[in-house]
Automatic annotation (TrEMBL), chain A:
<dbReference type="Pfam" id="PF08352">
    <property type="entry name" value="oligo_HPY"/>
</dbReference>
<dbReference type="InterPro" id="IPR027417">
    <property type="entry name" value="P-loop_NTPase"/>
</dbReference>
<dbReference type="Pfam" id="PF00005">
    <property type="entry name" value="ABC_tran"/>
</dbReference>
<dbReference type="GO" id="GO:0005524">
    <property type="term" value="F:ATP binding"/>
</dbReference>
<dbReference type="InterPro" id="IPR003593">
    <property type="entry name" value="AAA+_ATPase"/>
</dbReference>
<dbReference type="InterPro" id="IPR017871">
    <property type="entry name" value="ABC_transporter-like_CS"/>
</dbReference>
<dbReference type="GO" id="GO:0015833">
    <property type="term" value="P:peptide transport"/>
</dbReference>
<feature type="domain" description="ABC transporter">
    <location>
        <begin position="6"/>
        <end position="258"/>
    </location>
</feature>
<keyword id="KW-0067">ATP-binding</keyword>
TrEMBL record, chain B:
<protein>
    <submittedName>
        <fullName>Peptide ABC transporter permease</fullName>
    </submittedName>
</protein>
<feature type="transmembrane region" description="Helical">
    <location>
        <begin position="173"/>
        <end position="192"/>
    </location>
</feature>
<dbReference type="Pfam" id="PF12911">
    <property type="entry name" value="OppC_N"/>
</dbReference>
<keyword id="KW-0812">Transmembrane</keyword>
<comment type="similarity">
    <text>Belongs to the binding-protein-dependent transport system permease family.</text>
</comment>
<dbReference type="Pfam" id="PF00528">
    <property type="entry name" value="BPD_transp_1"/>
</dbReference>
<feature type="region of interest" description="Disordered">
    <location>
        <begin position="1"/>
        <end position="24"/>
    </location>
</feature>
<keyword id="KW-1003">Cell membrane</keyword>
<keyword id="KW-1133">Transmembrane helix</keyword>
Length: 338, 311
């Protein structure tokens, strides 16, 4: 078993809601991330899925220390990095980098590709000596499959897929151990998505990277991930290997999510059953008591509104179904396993 | 089950561009804008006019050898223009003190151009700094800067400069520049602040933070180059306005004073005799209008070229 490179313990991020002009009084909080724990092993890919507004991107920002965690710990190789600042934080940044969702806004339009990819070296001069930087940038362009001659071009001269490659090259520049990909392909065409995904997989093999891969496209997550975590309204509802999640989901939300995946087979369309959830996702400022999913769950009972289900391996289940799931009534739904 | 590996035969992403194998010259947004501008007649005309005006302001002696302050009342009192003499002292006629109007129009350009450029540069720098601080840091810094901006914004530009200039016993070009900068920086601050707030939220700023970039680097390498375009546009357009304002103040007798030569002063002295000598009013007023128009046209053209939405 590989060692844990990143360990997240009970991570919480609340955005305070204030009232009053001069003396701000806190009247509540948007609970964007509300007590999440998981670990990322060296060299593995952890996929995080969930619908819009469930806190996936906030989780990425907190892990990157772009937002301060309200409470909880982020342990990188055993050291808590969530409260670091100054030089110590800058040093940790070398190890954790990020690839952004939108390749059109994540590259500074006024900088050349060489400047964009070379910027990490300027910020961390110890990584590449001044004379070697141009060479280092060209090597990175080569690694991500772009022509090293393009070093003097500007981002607007590239297509979306090429821009995302530039973004990946920038993330790789500091030779990080972890790359957090925040929906890295959702802004791209399907054919280009495949190229970028394959590039990410190839780089993982080459540099021994660990990925945290945030997405809402379930098939892409299944393709790239070793393990998958499902988020709903700031909580992790189920986490396990891709086989455990995709074929043996025990949480009703995961089952509903999976039933919405389009199947590229017209004959199978008839036989499968879709779970249609009623209502909208509740406001994270005022989440339901007990289980957060109970307002939309067909299995909800009295107990669900009183007791918060813990993310734990259910004792009643065996085999691949026995993985961490935050439900009081976990069971594998036969028709969900397509 | 969808299988991505089947669709993922790696087509070289650079195929379309690889065809153009020869090294291509890099083109920044700035050079793209310049490329656009050169083809716009409005830009070419206004730029040529402004260039001419700047040459006149720097070296008025190239255009006339007549002393603009020398008056001969017996010879030249309100002598009408003699259009057959190009670039001569009597080309535009003589004013109520027997001074060559052509020479005065030429020498008057300096006051207008100096005031216009200095006030624009001054307000842009001040407004740029305050707008950047307010927009980037937000919080109480933003609150303080924005409220002070609001207070200054509430003072009418003309009335405020009347009050400030009244405090000077002898007024020069620099006292007018001071008064206009003191009151004019607010607009630039607001434009810059809004622009910085927009750019600050872009992903590339987050990316720079994630790399560990410091505040200075983020401000000057990432935010400033992307936030400056609207400020440049507003500055170019308002330059014409400041020239008109200087003339207005001089016309009202509170701006520049004799012996400084300014179109506003000449317009003021000519208006009393508009029926007998309309040409004495027409030429300085015409020059003023052309100058203001040239700067406004330039601002328009620059805005079209820099506006990313039209690109």
């Amino acid at each position: 078993m590989a060692e844990n490179i990143l360990e997240v313990k009970d991570l919480v991020k609340h955005y305070p809601l204030t009232q009053g002009v001069l003396f701000k009084k806190q009247v509540g909080a948007v609970k964007a991330v509300d007590g999440i724990s998981f670990e990322l092993k060296k060299g593995e890919t952890l996929g995080i899925v969930g619908e819009s507004g469930c806190g996936k991107s906030t989780l990425a920002k907190v892990l990157m220390n772009l937002e301060r965690a309200t409470s909880g710990q982020v342990l990188f190789k055993g050291e808590d990095i969530s409260q670091l600042s100054g030089g110590a934080l800058k040093a940790v940044r070398r190890n954790i980098q990020m690839v952004f969702q939108d390749p059109y806004t994540s590259l500074n339009p006024r900088m050349t590709v060489g400047d964009i990819i070379g910027e990490p070296f300027e910020i961390h001069p110890e990584v590449a000596p001044k004379g070697d930087r141009r060479k280092a940038v060209q090597d990175l362009l080569d690694v991500v499959g772009l022509n090293p001659e393009y070093i003097n071009r500007y981002p607007h001269q590239f297509s979306g897929g090429q821009r995302q490659r530039i973004g990946i090259a920038r993330g790789l520049a500091l030779k990080p151990e972890i790359i957090i990909c925040d929906e890295p392909v959702s802004a791209l065409d399907v054919s280009v998505q495949a190229q970028v995904i394959n590039l990410l997989e190839q780089l993982q093999g080459e540099f021994g990277l660990s990925y945290m891969f945030i997405a809402h496209d379930l098939s892409i997550v299944r393709h790239i991930s070793d393990r998958v975590g499902v988020m709903y309204l700031g909580k992790m509802v189920e986490i396990g290997s891709d086989e455990q999640i995709y074929d043996n989901a025990t949480h009703p939300y995961t089952q509903a999510l999976l039933s919405a995946v389009p199947v590229p087979d017209p004959t199978a369309r008839e036989s499968r059953e879709r779970i249609i959830l009623s209502g909208d996702i509740p406001s994270p400022a005022n989440p339901p008591s007990g289980c957060r999913f109970r307002t939309r769950c067909w299995k909800a009972q009295e107990r669900c509104s009183e007791e918060i289900p813990l993310l734990a391996i259910p004792t009643t289940l065996e085999g691949p179904a026995a993985h961490e799931s935050a439900c009081h009534f976990p069971e594998v739904r036969e028709s969900a396993a397509a | 089950m969808p299988d991505l590996t089947k669709t993922a035969e790696e087509t070289p992403a650079q195929a379309p561009v690889a065809a153009a194998a020869k090294p291509e010259k890099a083109r920044s947004l700035g050079s793209d804008a310049w490329h656009d501008l050169r083809r716009k007649p409005i830009f070419v005309i206004s730029a040529l006019l402004i260039l001419l005006l700047i040459v006149i302001a720097v070296a008025p002696g190239l255009f006339t050898s007549v002393d603009p302050r020398a008056g001969d009342l017996r010879e030249h009192f309100h002598t009408p223009p003699n259009y057959s003499h190009f670039f001569e002292g009597d080309w535009f006629g003589y004013d109520g003190q027997g001074r060559s109007i052509y020479a005065r129009v030429i020498y008057g350009a300096r006051a207008s151009v100096v005031v216009g450029i200095c006030v624009t540069v001054g307000t842009t720098i001040l407004g740029g700094i305050f707008g950047m601080l307010a927009g980037y840091f937000g919080g109480w810094i933003d609150t303080i800067i924005s409220r002070v901006t609001d207070i200054f914004f509430g003072i009418p530009l003309l009335l405020g400069s009347l009050v400030i200039l009244n405090a000077f016993t002898s007024r020069t070009i620099w006292s007018v520049v001071f008064a206009l900068i003191t009151l004019g920086w607010t607009q630039m601050t607001r434009v810059m602040r809004g622009s910085v707030i927009t750019v600050k939220q872009a992903d590339f700023v987050t990316a720079a933070k994630a790399l560990g970039a410091g505040t200075g680097r983020i401000m000057f390498k990432h935010i400033l180059p992307n936030a400056i375009a609207p400020v440049i546009v507003v500055a170019t357009i308002s330059l014409g306005g400041y020239i008109a304002l200087e003339a207005t103040l001089s016309f009202l007798g509170i701006g520049l004073q004799d012996p400084t030569i300014s179109w506003g002063i000449d317009i003021n002295s000519a208006q009393k005799l508009i029926r007998t000598a309309p040409f004495a009013l027409f030429f300085p007023a015409g020059m003023l209008s052309i100058t203001v128009l040239a700067f406004i046209m330039l601002g328009d053209a620059v805005r079209d070229a820099l506006d990313p939405k039209l690109r």
